[in-house]
Structure formats: structure tokens, C-alpha cells
């Protein structure tokens, strides 16, 4: 609550801290005649709530920088990328040459025999012309590392001169000291 003053005239003084112009100071009161002295009484005024000051929001923290790879980890990744590229290229070159026996060495051991039969049937019907890699995604976080290769397979039917193009996705895993083909879609 604020305390304000009301003069004997009955007018309320505006603002708790402001004094009306006719207010006399102590020194001037002593010099003024007694009948000129205003009569003051103390009254309570309601205070208007003042709005809380606006809280300044701090800027968001800067985004965290990605963890930098150590030299050893960077070299490991480059070696895995090179080995994957070599394995994919060699696998398809072997199929172009119709060398199924060598090509199945890139297939995971548990699925080799089934893949061998599948490749012999494929080679009997078609001739591989090329496999063009369009996208490679390697997941280094997994142990062992895994990769997904997307590309376009161009092949020919046995008695055709028109090439067939199809989208192919291969899933590879790094195991047994090299990249192994798990499956194709």
C-alpha cells in the first residue's frame, strides 16, 4: 500500500511521490502565517500492480560439432570403403566373365551353395553387361560394418540385342577379413 496525502480541500494528491505545487517545505512553513497552513491527513491509496519486467531469453546454445574422427578411425573407414568398392567391382566382373565359382566367394558362407545355384541359373539365361553403382551407404557404427549398395544392372537375355536395365540393391557385411554379400533385392 502506498501512503498519500489529502489536503484540507479534499482533493487527492496524484501519485505517491509527487507533491502538488502548493506544498510548502519545512523552511517555508515556519515563515508562513498560521492561517495559511494547509491541514494534511494521511490516507491509503491502492497501488496499481506494475508488470513484471520482460525476461530476456538467452540464445539457444550453438549446435554441437560432430565428433571428429581420429586419424586411425578415418584410415579404417577409407580402407573399408576401398575394400567394398573393390569387392563389388570384382564380383560383377566375375559374373560378366561367367565365373560363378569365384563370384560366390564373395557371398556369405552360410548362403554360398544356394547363391551358387541361383547364379548358375541366372548365367544360363542372361549375360551381365555392367553394374553401375549409384549410391553406397556404409554403417561404421555396427560391428561388423555393413553396407548397402544401390545401382543399375544392365544385362542381356541370351538371344536378345536389347539390354535389360533393372534397379538392384545389395547388402554387404564386413566379415572374415573381407566384404561378404548377404542378399540382393
Report the biggest beta sheet as strand number plus sense, adding barrel if it closes: 4 strands, antiparallel
- As a whole number of angstroms, the C-alpha radius of gyration is 45 Å
Strand order of the largest sheet: 3-4-5-6
Count of discrete alpha- or pi-helical segments spanning 4 or more residues:
4
Gross CATH architecture of the largest domain = Roll
| Amino- and carboxy-terminal Cα gap | 80 Å
So what's the overall shape?
A: rod-shaped
CATH superfamily of the largest domain: NTF2-like, domain 1
Broad CATH class of the largest domain: Alpha Beta
Mean pLDDT: 80
| Share of helical residues | 25-40%
Measured by DSSP, the beta-strand proportion falls in: 25-35%
| Uncertain runs | none
**Number of E-type strands:** 6
CATH topology of the largest domain: Nuclear Transport Factor 2, Chain: A
Supply the number of structural domains. 2
Order of helices and strands: EHEHHHEEEE
Main structural class: alpha+beta
Amino acid at each position: 500500500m502506498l501512503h498519500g496525502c489529502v489536503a484540507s480541500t479534499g482533493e487527492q494528491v496524484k501519485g505517491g511521490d509527487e507533491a502538488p505545487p502548493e506544498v510548502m517545505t519545512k523552511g517555508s512553513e515556519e515563515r508562513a502565517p498560521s492561517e495559511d497552513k494547509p491541514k494534511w491527513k494521511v490516507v491509503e491509496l491502492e497501488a496499481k500492480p506494475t508488470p513484471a519486467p520482460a525476461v530476456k531469453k538467452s540464445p539457444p546454445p550453438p549446435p554441437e560439432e560432430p565428433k571428429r574422427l581420429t586419424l586411425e578411425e578415418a584410415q579404417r573407414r577409407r580402407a573399408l570403403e576401398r575394400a567394398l568398392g573393390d569387392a563389388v567391382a570384382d564380383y560383377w566382373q566375375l559374373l560378366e566373365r561367367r565365373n560363378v565359382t569365384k563370384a560366390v566367394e564373395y557371398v556369405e558362407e552360410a548362403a554360398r551353395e544356394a547363391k551358387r545355384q541361383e547364379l548358375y541359373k541366372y548365367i544360363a539365361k542372361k549375360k551381365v553387361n555392367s553394374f553401375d553403382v549409384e549410391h553406397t551407404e556404409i554403417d561404421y557404427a555396427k560391428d561388423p560394418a555393413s553396407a548397402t549398395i544401390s545401382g543399375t544392372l544392365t544385362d542381356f537375355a541370351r538371344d536378345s540385342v536389347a539390354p535389360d536395365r533393372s534397379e538392384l540393391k545389395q547388402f554387404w557385411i564386413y566379415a572374415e577379413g573381407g566384404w561378404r554379400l548377404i542378399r540382393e533385392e
